[in-house]
Amino acid sequence: MIRLVFWFSLALTIILTATVVVSGVAFLPPTVALGPCLRDLTSPFWEERASPLAAETFDVGDATVRICYGRPSARERVVFGGMVPYRQLWRTGANEPTRIYTNGNVALAGVQLTPGRYSLYTIPDTSSWRIFITESVLHWGNDLRGGAQDKTVGVGIVPSDSTASFVETFTITGVSGDSALMVLGWERTRVAIPVTRLP
Do the Cβ atoms of 147 and 135 come closer than 8 Å? Predict the structure, then answer.
């Protein structure tokens, strides 16, 4: 009986650990731990990525938001309207879906989020971007069939601006405050997404 309990406990530990490594999802509630920014096993740890995984953390009032995303580079390619087509759903980065973790109630582009873990998608256009948020975080990149779309939280629209300087590598920057900003920058495009604290 003791051996059975031991092997069951070991198997459960391995399954839970593998789930965290594969999905980047922590089992602790986000009020305790926002969650790790981990690579999915579909991209082996020993291989160097062309688009490295990055994290950005910022405060919205007394809440904290963490973004985990892949950072592709332009490499002399046309980005928006080329490599990233206009008016099509984009994972807002590379590889895994871009994930948002929050430990408080916030509104991102007007979409209300409770403490939890989400995936962020965008639909770029020439003058505005559509922000698409889903509760599904256990899918790969742009694979949004079935369950991922069924878990849509909301959609918002934000304007896009051009920049004087060229941004080679896709970058997400958080600007903390009671009314915070999550700024997406790549090529000569800048998109500032408002993030506000909710009660």
Answer: no
- Running DSSP on this structure, what letter comes out for residue 170? E
In whole angstroms, what is the distance from residue 20 CA to residue 24 CA? 5
**DSSP letter string, 27-88:** SS-TTT--------TTS-TTSPPSS-EEEEEEEETTEEEEEEEE--B-TTS-TBTTTB-TTS
What is the spatial order of strands in the sheet that 179-197 belongs to?
53-60, 63-70, 98-102, 116-124, 128-134, 152-175, 179-197, 106-108, 111-113
CA atoms within 13 A on the CB side of 132: 21
**Which span out of 31-45, 96-110, 180-194 was modeled with the highest average pLDDT?**
180-194
Q: Mean pLDDT throughout 100-118? A: 95
Write the DSSP symbol of residue 17: H
Q: Are 31 and 38 in contact, with CB atoms under 8 Å apart?
A: no
Residue 107: pLDDT over 80: yes
